[in-house]
C-alpha cells in the first residue's frame, strides 16, 4: 500500500533537475537540459506546474527512484512514517489558455517501476485532480496511447511492436487505465513520433481524453 502526496518541483535546484532528467530518461521521454530550462521558465510564468509524487511506502518495495547520490531529500509529512519519504515519480499540470469551461491538461505522469502496481499512480491522479480543482478547473484533459495497440490485431496495431520496433506489445492499456478513472475519449489522432528499427518514422495514435470535474 502506498500513501503519497505531491510537492512542487524546484528546477532552480540542480539536484532536482538531475533527478527529473533521470526519471524522464527511465521512461524514454525527453530529458534534454534545454527542455528543462524551458519548463523552469514556464513554471515562473505559471503555464506549467510540476510536482514530485512523494511516497512513504509501507510495502517492501525497494526504495526509490533515484540512483544518483545527490537526490533531493523530500520532507515527510508525518513524523510517524515508518520509512523515509521517496520521490517515486512526477506529474505536471498545465492550464489550457483561453478555454471555456476552464480546462487543465495533465502531462507526463511517471511512477518509478519499483513503485508500480501499488495504487500510487491512481492516488497521484486523485491528488492532481484536487490541485486542478482548487485552481478552478472544470475539465481535465490528457492524451494516452490508443488502446488499439494493445487489443486490435493487425500489423498497424498490436503487431506494430514486433514488426517495427522489435519489442513485445505493452502489458496493459494506459488509455483503459484512465477510462477506469472516468476519462472519456473524444478523438484519436496519430501524434507520437517514433523511429522504427529500419529508420522509418512512425506516428503512433493517441487517444485524446477528458473528464468533467
Ligand atoms: C501508468 C502508470 C503511471 C501506472 O502507475 P501505477 O502506480 O502502477 O498504477 P496503479 O498502481 O495505481 O494502478 C495499477 C493498475 O493499473 C493496471 N496495470 C498497471 N501496470 C500494469 C501491468 N504491467 N500489467 C497489467 N496491468 C497493469 C492494472 O489494472 C493495475 O491494477 P492491479 O495492480 O490491481 O492489477 C505507470 O505504469 C507508469 O509510470 N508507466 C510509465 C509512464 C506512462 O505510461 N505514463 C502514462 C502516460 S499517458
UniProtKB/TrEMBL annotation:
Record's compositionally biased regions (Low complexity): 58-80
Q: Which Gene3D superfamilies match?
A: 3.40.630.30
- Entry's SUPFAM superfamilies? Acyl-CoA N-acyltransferases (Nat)
Q: Which GO terms describe its molecular function?
A: acyltransferase activity, transferring groups other than amino-acyl groups
Where would I find the N-acetyltransferase domain in this sequence?
7-213
Ranges for the region named Disordered are 58-98
Its recorded name reads N-acetyltransferase domain-containing protein
Highest taxon listed in the record's lineage = Eukaryota
In terms of InterPro entries, this protein maps to: Acyl_CoA_acyltransferase (IPR016181), GNAT_dom (IPR000182)
Amino acid at each position: 500500500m502506498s500513501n503519497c502526496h505531491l510537492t512542487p518541483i524546484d528546477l532552480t535546484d540542480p539536484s532536482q533537475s538531475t533527478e527529473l532528467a533521470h526519471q524522464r530518461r527511465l521512461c524514454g521521454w525527453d530529458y534534454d537540459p534545454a527542455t528543462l530550462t524551458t519548463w523552469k521558465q514556464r513554471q515562473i510564468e505559471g503555464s506549467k506546474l510540476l510536482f514530485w509524487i512523494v511516497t512513504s511506502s509501507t510495502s517492501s518495495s525497494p526504495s526509490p527512484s533515484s540512483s544518483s547520490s545527490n537526490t533531493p531529500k523530500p520532507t515527510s509529512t508525518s513524523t510517524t512514517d515508518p520509512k523515509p519519504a521517496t520521490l517515486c515519480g512526477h506529474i505536471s499540470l498545465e492550464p489550457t489558455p483561453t478555454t471555456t469551461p476552464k480546462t487543465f491538461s495533465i502531462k507526463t505522469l511517471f511512477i518509478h517501476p519499483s513503485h508500480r502496481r501499488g495504487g500510487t499512480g491512481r492516488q497521484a491522479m486523485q491528488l492532481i485532480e484536487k490541485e486542478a480543482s482548487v485552481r478552478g478547473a472544470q475539465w481535465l484533459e490528457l492524451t494516452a496511447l490508443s488502446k488499439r495497440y494493445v487489443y486490435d490485431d493487425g500489423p498497424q496495431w498490436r503487431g506494430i511492436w514486433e514488426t517495427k520496433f522489435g519489442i513485445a506489445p505493452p502489458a496493459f492499456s494506459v488509455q483503459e487505465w484512465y477510462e477506469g478513472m472516468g476519462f472519456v475519449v473524444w478523438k484519436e489522432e496519430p501524434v507520437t513520433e517514433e523511429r522504427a528499427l529500419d529508420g522509418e518514422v512512425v506516428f503512433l495514435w493517441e487517444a485524446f481524453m477528458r473528464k468533467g470535474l
